Amino acid sequence: MNNPYSVAARASLPPASRGYGLLAVGVLSSGLTAIVMTAIGFFVVPQFQEVFTSFGVALPWLTRALIHGYGWAWIAPVLVLLQWFRGPGGLYRPHLAAVLGVLAMLGGALVTVFGLYLPMFQIGAVV
């Protein structure tokens, strides 16, 4: 008896059913998030860091984490690829990879937005 959820069963499916589109969704969304977070962390945030510290306000921990840890966003596309190739889920493995990529995008967007706005709120409270 064959297991319909095995990798071999997925390989016997037509190419459109193997989940390449879902892999593209997961990798593109997490990769785009990594690119944007790296660009913001490398170019934008250090320029504003001087302005924030000139007011004598300590940066929140989330902003400091964004400044020093933006490179960690590049783990998300790797995790998506690992999920697609070796993760649990059988036939649903591509779906889980796409969901992981979209969740990485949403989480990265939330961290970036809150990391950039928290210092502005603190400066507004001081002024």
**Between the first and last Cα atoms, what is the distance in angstroms?**
72 Å
Query: How helical, in percent, are the residues?
Result: over 70%
Give the radius of gyration: 20 Å
Topology order in helix (H) and strand (E) letters: HHHHH
* Basic shape: rod-shaped
Largest sheet: none
Count of extended strands = 0
β-sheet strand percentage: under 5%
Organism: Stenotrophomonas rhizophila
Protein name: Type II secretory pathway component PulF
Transmembrane segments: 20-45, 65-85, 97-118
Keywords: Membrane, Transmembrane, Transmembrane helix
What does this structure look like?
The chain crosses the membrane at residues 20-45, 65-85, 97-118. Keywords: Membrane, Transmembrane, Transmembrane helix. This is Type II secretory pathway component PulF. The protein has 127 residues and is mainly α. It has five helices and no strands. It starts with 6 loop residues before the first helix and ends with a helix. The mean pLDDT is 84.
